[in-house]
Write a structure and sequence with these properties.
single chain; about 250 residues; mainly alpha; globular
């Protein structure tokens, strides 16, 4: 819907001439990329129902290709339609557009609210359970007290995002910080660590590793390349924040 509305307005002559590239905004790109590829969360839901994994790579390739096409089209139409006037949340651009029918404008403006309303409880429950597992060793396998299990862990999962929401409304800064630092760990470091230790444990237990569904590009070299990229990303982001603070 957003792509169609933006295209119609561009065709009608309501467009801007954006910059081809702005190096100052490059560090923020890392944070945005983390959130753009949250689509990876749906992959288990696609792979698990497959009775045969024979065509898993072609299907995932088509899936990611379609995601890339839709993201690219949406980004280009947004940039050429609104240019430097883009809101932190893209859907808000249509709320202030008097040429868009009001019910559609309000629906688009509230779309992130609908998404968060459905995802937040699921993510909170997942985080709560992960915290329980993380602190299980401290409890030495014993059951948590009722207060800790039913009150402390849920509050640890729910209160931080609520506090941040009350503290600031600067979405760009939030995406830049949370996507840049924790995001690098989530997208690069943790997956590398999981795959590396899983393969090592598998080899130790079965004395071999022959996974016909493994990625075409893999091995220790790929682990090193991903970690180098993660370190480089952190360096670029920290440098950018320091230079902005000095200015």
């Amino acid at each position: 819907m957003m792509i169609v509305i933006a295209l119609i307005e561009i065709i009608q002559g309501n467009h801007t001439k954006p910059k081809s590239f702005d190096f100052k905004e490059l560090p923020d790109l890392f944070g945005v990329c983390i959130y753009s590829f949250m689509c990876q969360h749906s992959l288990p839901g696609m792979i698990t129902p497959m009775k045969s994994k024979k065509y898993v790579f072609p299907m995932l390739s088509v899936d990611y290709a379609l995601i890339f096409v839709f993201y690219s089209v949406m980004c280009y139409t947004a940039v050429f339609r609104f240019g430097g006037q883009l809101e932190d949340i893209y859907t808000l651009n249509f709320l202030n557009n008097t040429r868009v029918w009001r019910p559609i404008a309000y629906y688009l403006a509230l779309f992130p609210v609908f998404t968060l309303s459905t995802n937040f409880p699921i993510i909170s429950v997942t985080l709560r359970e992960n915290l329980k597992v993380l602190f299980r060793k401290l409890a030495r396998g014993r059951e948590y007290p009722f207060v800790v299990d039913r009150i402390v862990f849920p509050l640890l999962a729910v209160l931080p995002p609520i506090a941040i929401a009350f503290a600031t409304t600067d979405v760009e800064a939030l995406v830049g910080w949370t996507g840049s630092f924790p995001g690098v760990g989530v997208q690069y470091v943790i997956p590398v660590a999981l795959v590396f230790f899983a393969r090592r444990k598998f080899k130790k237990q079965f004395h071999t590793y022959n996974n016909k569904h493994k990625a075409p590009i893999g091995g220790t070299v790929m682990f090193v390349v991903v970690l180098i990229w993660a370190v480089a990303s952190i360096i670029v982001i920290i440098t950018d924040h320091i230079l902005k603070a000095v200015d």
